[in-house]
TrEMBL record:
It comes from Winogradskyella flava. This is PA0069 family radical SAM protein. Keywords: Iron, Iron-sulfur, Metal-binding. Residues 64-301 form the Radical SAM core domain. It comes from the Bacteria. One of its GO terms (molecular function) is metal ion binding.
Length: 357
């Protein structure tokens, strides 16, 4: 049974202290009582967009088990509010909380398209797939306002450079024309995140994301237009969506997906505290069970950082999940695979047009 005292439309239910800050902020009960008596709104629950100006936009990924070598993020923080999101911890580096701040203070890198173009024009740059959304979703609600993802796709197309996308937002279909043009030269791969077929589960896990019906439509529409789609069943959370692995795999295969991948939830840094606070309010009847089972997958702790183990977990529950995904792959994706992206065209288009000599 869900608690009634939840903050509507948000995943995290409070701000967690930033580990890197000396001072902390506390909302005292006497202040809350005063505001209630005076009829004042304590928290307007509004999203703020804050401009930031980094010197570079593409990051080298050194982790051996992420599956990408370069990533870029036009936005830091994410209004989708997915409670389990590993990117929450990165908001602390900017001086904010990994809790509500992560969802309500969105940092916007308006120079992203220009920075990307500068990189792709460098003589020293050798084409290699760059993944948009290595940290936060490039099609989150901020994209409707700023259109930085679309502008970056135009840059990738201009310079014939391969690009990957990770998203759970149907807004990607707005850019179908650009994706189709990229696909003609095998320059695009799309990864759609689907964590459940249940709208009730989706609403509490990922409060401001596209509905499951719309995400399945995205998979189908992209696939029907020749754009390769991989679906990320990620994360799998014991006793929340672990029973849905086979139904999800069948649904995305039927929609045209080329492959599936998965991870088992891990709650590093302050995310463990945020998740535990959330689940006790959102799913109090099974909170302890879920937390124990997550710990069972990670050697008795919610936190897991060991390369090679952190994504797949260990122990009996993790093994059952991993075996079920293997079965799903054999059953629904036999003979299917994602194509390798084309890195051969970019050198000829280093200045934005085809070199004749």
């Amino acid at each position: 049974m869900k608690s009634k005292s939840t903050i509507k439309g948000r995943g995290a239910q409070r701000n967690i202290h930033n580990r890197f800050l000396e001072l902390s902020h506390e909302m005292r009960d006497d202040f809350l009582e005063f505001c209630e008596k005076e009829g004042e709104i304590v928290d307007k629950n509004k999203t703020q967009y804050l401009n930031v100006f980094p010197k570079t936009i593409v990051n080298k990924v050194t982790s051996p088990d992420v599956g990408m070598a370069y990533s870029m993020n036009m936005y830091q923080g994410c209004e989708h509010g997915c409670i389990y999101c590993y990117a929450r911890n990165s908001h602390e580096f900017w001086g904010y909380s990994a809790g509500l701040d992560f969802e309500r203070r969105i940092l916007v890198k308006k120079d992203a398209p220009k920075l990307l173009e500068t990189l792709l024009k460098k003589k020293s740059w050798k084409a290699y797939p760059i993944v948009m959304s290595g940290n936060t979703d490039c099609y989150q609600p901020a994209e409707q306002k700023f259109e930085l993802t679309r502008q970056c796709l135009e840059v990738f197309l201009k310079y014939k450079h391969p690009v990957g996308i990770i998203t759970k937002n149907a807004l990607i279909l707005r850019d179908l024309n650009l994706l189709k043009d990229l696909a003609k030269d095998n320059l695009i791969a799309v990864n759609i995140s689907i964590t459940s077929l249940s709208e009730d589960t989706r609403r509490i896990l990922e409060p401001r994301t596209a509905t499951i019906k719309r995400r399945l439509k995205v998979v189908k529409e992209l696939s029907d237009n020749g754009i390769p789609v991989n679906v990320m069943l990620a994360p799998i959370i014991p006793s929340i969506n672990s029973h849905e692995i086979l139904p999800m795999a069948k649904a995305v295969s039927d929609a045209g997906a080329q492959s599936i991948v998965h991870t088992i939830v891990r709650l590093n840094g302050t995310i463990g505290e945020i998740f535990a606070d959330w689940i006790k309010k959102a799913l109090p009847d099974r909170a302890d069970k879920v937390l124990r089972q997550i710990e069972n997958c990670h050697g008795g702790t919610l936190n897991e950082s060991r390369f090679g183990i952190r994504m797949r977990g260990e122990g009996q529950i993790a093994q059952q999940i991993n075996d079920m995904v293997k079965l799903a792959q054999l059953k629904y994706f036999r003979g299917k695979s994602m194509p390798k992206l084309n890195t051969e065209l970019h050198e000829q288009h280093k200045d934005g047009q085809l070199k004749l000599f």
